[in-house]
Amino acid sequence: MAKNTSRYVCQECGASHVKWSGQCESCQAWNSLSEEAINEAAPKSLGAARGRRITIVGIAGGSEKPPRRISGIGEFDRVTGGGLVPGSALLVGGDPGIGKSTVMLQAAAALSGQMAVIYISGEEAIDQLRMRAERLGLAESSVQLAAATSVRDIVTTLDEGEAPGLVVIDSIQTMFVDNLDSAPGTVSQVRASAQELVRQAKRRGFTVILVGHVTKEGQIAGPRVMEHLVDTVLYFEGERSHQFRILRAVKNRFGPTDEIGVFEMTERGLMEVTNPSALFLGEHRGDINGAAVFAGIEGTRPMLVEIQTLIAPSALGTPRRAVVGWDSGRLSMVLAVLETRCGLAIGTNDVFLNVAGGLRIGEPAADLAVAAALISSISGVPVPPNTVVFGEIGLSGEARTVSHTPARLKEAAKLGFTNAIIPKNRGKKRNTGNVGINIREIEHLADLLALFHPPSKIAEIGGRNG
Known about the structure:
Elements: E1 4-10, E2 16-17, E3 33-39, H1 74-79, E4 89-93, H2 100-111, E5 117-121, H3 126-135, E6 144-147, H4 151-159, E7 166-170, H5 187-204, E8 207-212, H6 225-229, E9 232-237, E10 244-252, E11 260-266, E12 269-272, H7 276-280, E13 291-298, E14 301-313, E15 321-324, H8 328-342, E16 349-355, H9 367-379, E17 387-389, E18 392-393, E19 399-400, H10 405-414, E20 419-423, E21 438-442, H11 445-449, H12 455-465
Parallel strand pairs: 4-8, 4-9, 5-6, 5-7, 7-8, 13-17, 15-16, 17-20, 20-21
Antiparallel strand pairs: 1-2, 1-3, 9-10, 10-11, 11-12, 13-14, 14-16, 18-19
């Protein structure tokens, strides 16, 4: 006979524990263990019953490309890899109030002219959804609405009649499977609900979009296994104080990862931004010290952003290192290289770094732009006008080449930049493209220092500030 017992499951990482403790041993999160009932019946043996034979084919052979359902919202279609694939599952996460429900309703309305679309909300009533649609100017669309939280009821409804083309579940944390004793939002419920909905989508051939909350660390709430259940994982980034929102693909079985779509929050909802480089550089001034323009690559798209730094004397025993939009560990590395390899005395000063516009940069190619902004801040000399900077920095101070150089330079030329500071290519001849930009190649950070002041002069300034 089955014996009912309980276990304690971490709501941050999904790890299971036999007894409660204040801290999860797997992810070190505090007060994250929740008691969940389980059934400890031993699994039955497969016995003598035979299963059906599976089909095995060779690796050689052709397969048709999956069809795409294009919404017409260019930035959304770009992030999904060119449109939604029938039978696929997408997971969309983001902070509360960032705009997840808004963009999902806009995408649902855009696709409702091509197929049947059902929007199921577990957090809002039908009247609230209608009010949002009216505010966004989508009241005349043919989106079907429902308010439900029972996965059994949802699956039963989707089984009837002709299958829809798209189903949006907002949000997966409010759904529950009634044969589990745990509360909605727990690891077991989130995992079981996602499995049932994804299985239904693949069986009937419709696309399902699961909207998920995120934890305070920025990860989608629930176990990481939920990300393995779906085909595409999208994250909404951006500060609510900024009008810009970044939709980033961190996993995509049908398109490139790290692709981004840029939106601007307006009274009429989230409007796509077709030229994000011009938007992020709208407030850039070339005569300000401590700022440098970085030519980066987000997915397949080149993008120019402004990196701002400020170095100020510290009144504290331990100087501050405040970073917004970049890796704080990478900043510490660049500061250490500038001090050790170039003789800049920055250690006793507060250092502040900000990526303008709310964009988060992850690629190492931003090292050289950050170094240029830091040198400009400590010397008081602006970066040469109409100049973009990109390149990786090694621990010995050498400038290392990065990929997609022609695309970066082409985007800079399109926005009117005439100069570029990039690492020198030590291998075969570099293909920079015929873009009409004056290129300054450097081998070491000492070459970058010489563009502002003689190295001895900058060291003197750094020592005086320290």
